[in-house]
TrEMBL record, chains A, B:
<dbReference type="InterPro" id="IPR036390">
    <property type="entry name" value="WH_DNA-bd_sf"/>
</dbReference>
<dbReference type="InterPro" id="IPR015797">
    <property type="entry name" value="NUDIX_hydrolase-like_dom_sf"/>
</dbReference>
<dbReference type="InterPro" id="IPR054105">
    <property type="entry name" value="WHD_NrtR"/>
</dbReference>
<dbReference type="InterPro" id="IPR020084">
    <property type="entry name" value="NUDIX_hydrolase_CS"/>
</dbReference>
<protein>
    <submittedName>
        <fullName>NUDIX hydrolase</fullName>
    </submittedName>
</protein>
<dbReference type="InterPro" id="IPR036388">
    <property type="entry name" value="WH-like_DNA-bd_sf"/>
</dbReference>
<dbReference type="GO" id="GO:0016787">
    <property type="term" value="F:hydrolase activity"/>
</dbReference>
<dbReference type="InterPro" id="IPR000086">
    <property type="entry name" value="NUDIX_hydrolase_dom"/>
</dbReference>
<keyword id="KW-0378">Hydrolase</keyword>
<comment type="similarity">
    <text>Belongs to the Nudix hydrolase family.</text>
</comment>
<dbReference type="Pfam" id="PF00293">
    <property type="entry name" value="NUDIX"/>
</dbReference>
<dbReference type="InterPro" id="IPR020476">
    <property type="entry name" value="Nudix_hydrolase"/>
</dbReference>
<feature type="domain" description="Nudix hydrolase">
    <location>
        <begin position="7"/>
        <end position="142"/>
    </location>
</feature>
<dbReference type="Pfam" id="PF21906">
    <property type="entry name" value="WHD_NrtR"/>
</dbReference>
Length: 229, 229
DNA sequence: CCAAAAGTGTTGGTTCTACACCCATGT
DNA sequence: ACATGGGTGTAGAACCAACACTTTTGG
């Protein structure tokens, strides 16, 4: 079956930059391409937008299909449309930006033929198409946004220590933070619920666990409160 | 001539939200539609993306064609792709956000058949398609961005008074600012060049004119300086 | 001389930064 | 007992918000 139009039309895809955090580093999910162009190269998960689905639905579908994962945070990043960005012809891609709790989705294998794997964002293989630009844009967005929106929590398990949280910020922002000042500031926002639990199986004093209080944040947000750093 | 593809493809357009500032208010540029759908309704300037041009080039071309204007500041805003946003079928639009010095482009007539006009952003007619959403998104972006990027200057003539600048911020942010604090803060950034000129033809004490120093800003930016409010 | 907007400093409160030691736990 | 990271307070500097009067100019 084929489709005919009076004027030529670009193809439209979505691509997803999915970030996860493990003990070592900030990671991005990549898929190894099986076919030309760029066969064998690693690329961002993504694919063509179907006629009846929204852009965001397309992004969610591709993530499910290619990596078997669901994400709590998904937002549109930027649309890349340089005429020569795909050697097959004019392809415009709407890039999305996702955060997942890597602790949950441990080393998920791709459900279709292709390989999926997590790479350190500071050390990825050479990427297909203009995906290096897309990744760079996503990193910039993450770095900017993490400071004034409480999205960092989407990268951590539901219960976390303040040190984990601090390491997250240090990793994303690429600079060290002062422990005492960091704790003061984040606790002063009154968005963390202090639990009666401590971490397990560590060979030193166990740290207290906290949980991010989404409900409280929504309330404060309405009242004009602004999360910051 | 017609074009055939194996799979159906959405059409892709660009739409531009162009802001300008005059003595009264923040304005947005609208075009009256001549044809169905939404014939007679006002809409954002825009049109189909050609196969050989980039998205940004398309936005610039449409602005030139539909309103005869060039803009200093043009950035991508968001991509709108709900399946039912255009009654003619699947049309994905990449929205752009532009700022122009209204003082220069005085009441420019459209170069093609359609009417173009400036409307107060707080009081527009009913818009075609989902353009009200697009406009709302653009306003939100402007409000957010004006505080941490010196883009407000793109709305003012090259030489302006501090009161004009303050009014700009008050209009965009929808709140009053303290005159002394505002002046202190903006002058402390050392980004304004104080000219040996004052405004003309006012029936009260004439205010000193200033110019924004783009070069100095670029330098400071590289050195890690952050513009803020 | 009146109207209109330009221009100008200080104070008190809040927030930010820098900084070092003791504590709890597991090996 | 030692190694590892957990947890805590203070002081000085910078920044922010609130606030009112005098000056200049044109009509």
């Amino acid at each position: 079956m084929s489709h005919t139009y009076e004027y030529p039309r670009p193809a439209v895809t979505v691509d997803c930059v999915v970030f996860g955090l493990d003990d070592e580093d900030l990671k991005v999910l990549l898929i190894q391409r099986g076919v030309e162009p760029y066969a064998g190269r690693w690329a961002l998960p993504g694919g063509f937008v179907r006629m009846e689905e929204s852009l965001e639905d397309a992004a969610r579908r591709e993530l499910e299909e290619e990596a078997g994962l669901r994400t709590s945070h998904l937002e549109q990043l930027y649309t890349f449309g340089a005429p020569e960005r795909d050697p097959r012809g004019r392809v415009i891609t709407v890039a999305y930006f996702a955060l997942v709790k890597l602790s949950a989705h441990h080393l998920q294998a791709a459900t279709d033929a292709r390989e999926a794997a997590w790479f350190s964002v500071w050390d990825t293989p050479k990427l297909a198409f203009d995906h290096a630009d897309v990744l760079a844009t996503a990193l910039q967005r993450l770095k900017g946004k993490v400071r004034y929106q409480p999205i960092g929590f989407e990268l951590l398990p539901p219960k976390f220590t303040l040190s984990q949280l601090q390491r997250l910020y240090e990793t994303v922002l690429e600079r060290e933070l002062d422990k005492r000042n960091f704790r003061k500031k984040i606790l002063a926002m009154d968005l963390l619920e202090e639990l009666d639990e401590v971490e397990q199986d560590v060979s030193h004093r166990a740290a207290r666990l906290y949980r991010f209080d989404h409900k409280k944040y929504k309330q404060l947000e309405k009242a004009g409160f602004n999360f910051e750093l």
